[in-house]
Amino acid sequence: MIEYMNYVIKSLQSNNDYEHLTLSSRSLLNFKIPNAFKFQLSNKSTPYTYNTIDISTNKVINGSITYLYTDAKGLDKLIKDSHNINIQSIVETYNHHCKTLNINKQNVDFKSLYYGRMYYPNSHLEGMIIKKFTTNTQVVLKWVSSFNSCNIITGYFQKYGKRNFQELIVSSNDFLCGYRFLHNFIEQPSKLNNSLYNNSYISLGGEFWLAISTLSPTCATTLRYCTHSATTGRPLTLTLSFNPLFGHLSSTYSAKTSSNSAFCVQYDFNLYSIDSNLSLGCELWKQNELIQNVSQEKSKKQEIQVPPNFYNNNSNDAKQKRILNDLNTTFESSLKKIDKERAVIENFETDLYNKDFTSVWKFSTSLRDKNLCILWDGKFKGFLLSAGTELIRINTNNENNSQSLVKFYPAKLGLQLQFST
Length: 421
Known about the structure:
Blueprint: H1 4-12, H2 23-29, E1 37-46, E2 49-58, E3 60-70, E4 112-120, E5 125-132, E6 137-145, E7 152-160, E8 164-171, E9 176-186, E10 201-211, E11 216-228, E12 235-243, E13 248-258, E14 261-270, E15 276-287, H3 318-354, E16 357-366, E17 371-380, E18 383-397, E19 404-420
Parallel strand pairs: 1-19
Antiparallel strand pairs: 1-2, 2-3, 3-4, 4-5, 5-6, 6-7, 7-8, 8-9, 9-10, 10-11, 11-12, 12-13, 13-14, 14-15, 15-16, 16-17, 17-18, 18-19
Subunit structure: Component of the ER-mitochondria encounter structure (ERMES) or MDM complex, composed of MMM1, MDM10, MDM12 and MDM34. Associates with the mitochondrial outer membrane sorting assembly machinery SAM(core) complex.
Membrane topology: Multi-pass membrane protein
Subcellular location: Mitochondrion outer membrane
């Protein structure tokens, strides 16, 4: 479960960038597990300012104070308190990349955003400034400061587009410079209608880095394919990532198996060391059984009526008329099939968006790490709760006999509570 300030920033930013190219697999496999007790209290003091204070206990008491200001208007329609928030908005879950998801999404325009956070008792500071010059270009400045002379400043110049994304990065840490890009290969809409195939597209992204102080380069590229099932309308995503310098190859398959579940499998392989790993992850959503949304009825498919002899009504030849009637019947069935596929996709995503979920279970495991990660996110009486653990496998020797026993013990265990007004 993401924090409140990240939820506010996420509502203002686009996820059409290289960083979110493999978001679906990361959300199902590498989700964050709390390792201590943490309580976070947030509120919206003015229409443009947000405040957060949190306290955590991990052997010692730690905490932080966060402040955010933005000149965005109309955030009341997007930012909800913990009692009215949609749990799908604050949980890192399967990311729908296809175009039909933007059913009820609203765009909020803003020119600047200021974010600051101070940790205590160590007094670490972190901040961020986002300044938009145009609708598609912005500059992001992030910095981290502490008393042990650890001061890092990183600047980003980002340019967004419907199909393209470009980003230049400069950091004071080893004078690191980087360039990241993303291009979406979207098929042109059909002249007849928007069909299933217009919701399938390929995304290609890459990143190039160079540490000027040590002259250490690195690069990576990622390919993503998104589509829907023709019969059920459920989305699925395939990614392939490759780092040529380290020889790391990673492939993922993520699918929304139903409106209440998602599954992901990832296979990693190194070309140089021949090491491999297989990771599995899934999430199970629970719907509120007391509150049923009446408006979740499936929309009726729109049938396109093609009149007989549509292409030629002036032919006097009986044989030619029979051929034209066969052509009309063929095109009519194709149009109905196109509309049926589109209706199935739109109905699935509309039904998913309108469902009232109360909690979600997440599970992930890895053959190489031999662990089991469990996370539960949910709502209870206006509070947002997140509890999880990571079980790892260890071998212990039995004193009575020399046989080794396999045991599992929790390497991480924690509980996080959030409340916002």
